[in-house]
Amino acid sequence: MPDLLLELFSEEIPARMQAKAADDLRRMVTDKLVAEGLVYEGAKAFATPRRLALTVHGIPARQADLKEERKGPRVGGPDAAIQGFLKATGLSSLDEATIQRDPKKGDFYVALIEKPGRATLDVLAEMLPVIVRTFPWPKSMRWGKRSEKPGALNWVRPLHAITATFGLETEEPDVVSFAIDGIEAGQTTYGHRFLAPAAISVRRFEDYEAKLLDAKVVLDPQRRKDTIVTDAKQLAFAQGFELVEDQVLLDEVSGLVEWPVVLMGSFDPEYLKVPGEVIRATIRNNQKCFVVRDPKTGGLAPKFILTANIEATDGGKTIIAGNERVIRARLSDAKFFYETDLKTKLEDRLPKFEQIVFHEKLGTQAARIARIEKLAAEIAPLVGADAAKTARAAKLAKADLLTEVVGEFPEVQGLMGKYYALAQGEDASVAAACEEHYKPQGPGDRVPTDKVAVAVALADKLDTLVGFWAILEEPTSSKDPFALRRAALGVIRMIESGLRIRLMSIFLNHLEQTVVYKTAITPAGNAVEVAMMFGNFEMIRAHKGLAGRPTHEGIEAKLAECRAEFHHLLENRSNRLLSFFAERLKGQLREQGARHDLVDAVFALGGQDDLFLVIHRIRALGTFLDSEDGRNLLAGTKRAGNILAIEEKRDNCKFEGTSDSALYRLPEEETLAREIARAKQAILRAVEAEDFEGVMIHLARLRPAVDAFFDKVKVNDDEAAIRENRLKLLNEIRSATRAVADFSKIEG
Question: Residue 489 and which of 84, 293, 386, 592 are 20 to 30 A apart at CA?
Answer without folding.
Answer: 386
